[in-house]
Amino acid sequence: xxxxxxxxxxxxxxxxxxxxxxxxxxxxxxxxxxxxxxxxxxxxxxxxxxxxxxxxxxxxxxxxxxxxxxxxxxxxxxxxxxxxxxxxxxxxxxxxxxxxxxxxxxxxxxxxxxxxxxxxxxxxxxxxxxxxxxxxxxxxxxxxxxxxxxxxxxxxxxxxxxxxxxxxxxxxxxxxxxxxxxxxxxxxxxxxxxxxxxxxxxxxxxxxxxx
Length: 211
Description:
By secondary structure, the protein is α+β, with helices and mostly antiparallel strands. Helix content is 40%, strand content 24%. The protein contains 7 helices and 7 strands, in the order H-H-H-E-H-H-E-E-E-E-H-H-E-E. Strand 4 (110-116) and strand 5 (125-131) form a beta hairpin. The termini are far apart.
């Protein structure tokens, strides 16, 4: 009892003194660090277990997806697409791409190749090859994450950016940069519904170039 009273007096005195503060222990600091928001860790931790399996299961061929978008947008959205409820972003679709590279822009940081799918020699979509990737197509294509799980818009935006950072470091940096025109390209990824007259902007999660 005496020890408890002494402790109470100590805490009361400490609270009354402006210069007195409590320092977190090493365990408390480690726990706080583990609970801190880390979008890079969220992406890397779910890439193999959730992201790739989801897109593989959800994707249709680029020809199939775009044909269904043109003929029945609602059906395309339900079968291949995802969109945040109440959000203003367009539908984003999972797709596989098989075609031949007809244009390559590798001087820009937001480098890309344009791919002919149907063999007419004209580009049907643009594929990002990094290092900078515009937009948040990968985040927006995933039905198992949503904005309400995040603290605020800033965290949500950083999460989207982390997908681009991850895919560049682990997939796109391995790609050749020379002699790309004429080579075959196979990829799995996602693209948002493009504006009228614009090429779809495709972001891959897996990609091979050669042949």
